[in-house]
Amino acid sequence: MKRIAGAAFLLFTLQLTAGIPHQQTDKAAPGYFTGRVTDETGKPVFGVPVRALQSANNAADSRTFRQVGGVITDDRGDYRLMELAPGRYYIAIGDAPGRSSSSPSGELYALRFYPGVGDISQAMALEIFPGSATQADLKAVRQ
To answer: For 29-139, which CATH superfamily applies?
Structure first.
């Protein structure tokens, strides 16, 4: 008799939980990049633009990059690029050649890519995982 009651309870429970809609989210929790930008001597650099770039292939099957986030370093040289969808990114710092400074200090810094190269073809892509931080420190080079 106890077995039948237990089986009926289990069947009733299964039927109840089967009727409850399961919530799914299509969007994974965002992550972020954090790091410090220093100069050639190791001192933190204030006001350097830091950008997150994603690559894609265009119709001509060549690789293009688009900016998906940007900040400037604080007075300790720190930055935090927030609310990035999980995926692969390239980190760029500095200004493009021929561009006026976007740095509050008025200094111009050469365009560099993680891990410290001047050409994006040599840059390393970094991964953002859902809800986590990825560290990327860089050296700024004055123009």
So the answer is: Carboxypeptidase-like, regulatory domain (2.60.40.1120)
Mapping DSSP onto H, E and C, the string for 6-55 reads HHHHHHHHHHHHHCCCCCCCCCCCCEEEEEEEECCCCCECCCCEEEEEEE
Determine the 3-state secondary structure of 121 from DSSP. Answer: helix
Neighbours of 139 (CB within 10 A): 17
Instruction: Report the b/e string of 20-57 with b at 16+ CB within 10 A.
Output: eeeeeeeeeeebbbebbbbbeeeebbbbbbbbbbbeee
Tens digits of residue pLDDT in 79-135: 999 999 999 999 999 987 655 555 666 778 999 999 999 999 999 999 999 999 999
Bridge-based pairing of strands 133-135 and 31-38 is parallel
Cα-based torsion angle of the residue sequence 34, 37, 43, 48 in order, rounded to the nearest 10 degrees? -120
Question: Distance between CA 57 and CA 54 in Å, rounded?
Answer: 10
